[in-house]
Amino acid sequence: MTMDIQTAGVVGAGVMGVGVAQNLAQCGMDVVLVDIAEAVLERARIEIGNNVRFQGFFAKEKNGPTPEEVLGRITFTIEPEKLADVDYLVENVVEKWPVKEEVYRRIDAICKPSCVFAANTSAISITRIASVTRRPDRVIGMHFMNPVPMKPLVEVIRGFHTSEETIEFSKFFLKKMGKSCVVVNDSPGFVSNRVLMLTVNEAVFLVQEGVAKAEEVDRIFKSCFGHKMGPLETADLIGLDTILYSLDVLYESFNDSKFRPCPLLKKMVDAGLHGRKNGRGFYNYPVL
């Protein structure tokens, strides 16, 4: 496997896809960002420009790329066929297996055989994802943290068939993004979300039961344990809908009642309270 990446593909222009595309372009790579809706891509374009401008304003060194330079490296498109020549692809679609399955079947038919697929998933099995492709040895998990450009470490997941070449190539890819990684074995939720989702879910139960308010729960974790964010602030950042989908996957995968989603979490998602992404979760946020 040649250690060379000319162009990277990013599928899904939601919160994580935007972060990955921005990070790649800021590090000098050409990017093809694909989504199914022009409106989503336009929001992504605006958000990336604003993010780069904001980072530049607060940066100690002012010689980073301009918003125009970063956006100039990104092709925004609703045509997945433009992924045909990418060398490395990061998938960021919703945490629902039927959607993931359809995406991988389609990109597997489009992308060149040498292209590596990295699933930026919170909980879905990398081995299961690889099973619907003709390149299971070139499928790997790559769990980025939000906000992507600001987080230096990535949780990388080795599927059953993932080759050592793919792992080394993925480390090279992440190094180009300015990141390091920890490689773990495939298991639903991996390390981070198998622990985090339980913590968040239990925190929601505390609010539901009236034991404490959301801000009180978060204050305890920040003041007592030195966490930068409490579990419910973290849930809002990730997206309450994503938290719920991840818990559903963990519950289905392990058949263990400890992963049952809290009814309050379900109610909030049904009510459209998804956190920072749409302005309201356990806290209220300005919507840009």
From TrEMBL:
One Pfam short name: 3HCDH_N
InterPro entries, per database record: 3-OHacyl-CoA_DH (IPR022694), 3-OHacyl-CoA_DH_NAD-bd (IPR006176), 3HC_DH_C (IPR006108), 6-PGluconate_DH-like_C_sf (IPR008927), 6PGD_dom2 (IPR013328), NAD(P)-bd_dom_sf (IPR036291)
Protein name, UniProt field: 3-hydroxybutyryl-CoA dehydrogenase
Keyword Oxidoreductase carried by entry: yes
KW Hydrolase (keyword) present: no
Lineage: Bacteria, Pseudomonadati, Pseudomonadota, Magnetococcia, Magnetococcales
3-hydroxyacyl-CoA dehydrogenase C-terminal domain mapped to chain residues: 189-285
EC number: 1.1.1.157
